[in-house]
Amino acid sequence: MPLPLLLQSNSSVLAAVMVLAVVALVAWALQLMQAAADRKEFSLMLAGCMVCSAAVGLATVMVMTFTSVDRIEAQLQAGGVSLDAISIPWDASFDSPG
């Protein structure tokens, strides 16, 4: 299912906002972990780890969203991406000599 027109026209703005959100989450996680080290509180360290894992999750969703199959197929049809040059080592036939 292709992305709606509104999302397609603003996808770079949305991507920039999501990147800024991930950077802000990582900065907050580092601040929490620094406070945990200063105060020797384990709960702040756990909070920092939770915020950092939220940033990783958001980054993963962002990558999956902006590299979806529909977007790649649309780029292929437009001639923007060529998969002919991709060579995967384990894709070769086992019968062919090395």
Task: Walk me through what this model shows.
The protein has 98 residues and is mostly helical. The chain has a domain at 15-79. Helix content is 70%, strand content 0%. It is built from 4 helices and no strands. The protein has helices at 5-9, 11-39, 42-66, 69-78. α2 (11-39) runs antiparallel to α3 (42-66). It is elongated and about 55 Å long. The model has no long low-confidence stretch (mean pLDDT 77).
Give the structure's gist in a few sentences:
The protein is mostly helical. 70% of the residues lie in helices and 0% in strands.
Radius of gyration from the alpha-carbon trace, in angstroms: 21 Å
Count the helices. How many? 4
**Major sheet details:** none
Question: What structural category do the secondary elements indicate?
Answer: mainly alpha
Task: State the end-to-end distance.
Answer: 41 Å
Q: Which descriptor suits the 3D outline?
A: elongated
On the 0 to 100 scale, the average pLDDT is 77
Q: Count the E strands.
A: 0
Share of residues in strands: under 5%
Helix content: over 70%
**Secondary-structure element string:** HHHH
Q: Can you tell me the residue ranges where pLDDT is under 50 for at least 5 consecutive residues?
A: none
